[in-house]
């Protein structure tokens, strides 16, 4: 998860849905791969885990740059 957090500092989030071009997803995946991060690890790095075990998704559907979590 540390690598995913590092990657989230340097890679702008993109909204991935049914309309996202396959080449855009592939390019984003390659950027993550260069940091040793899978797409699932990257997605999970944006969740906030609470003491009761529940999680919040910190807005992976936005196009805004990811804030540093370090």
UniProtKB/TrEMBL annotation:
Domain of life according to the entry: Eukaryota
Region feature Disordered, mapped onto this chain: 48-70
Protein name, per record: Uncharacterized protein
The organism of origin for this protein: Didymodactylos carnosus
């Amino acid at each position: 998860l540390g690598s995913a957090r590092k990657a989230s500092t340097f890679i702008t989030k993109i909204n991935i849905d049914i309309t996202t071009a396959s080449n855009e997803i592939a390019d984003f995946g390659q950027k993550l791969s260069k940091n040793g991060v899978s797409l699932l690890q990257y997605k999970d790095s944006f969740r906030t885990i609470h003491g009761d075990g529940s999680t919040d998704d910190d807005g992976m559907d936005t196009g805004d740059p990811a804030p540093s979590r370090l």
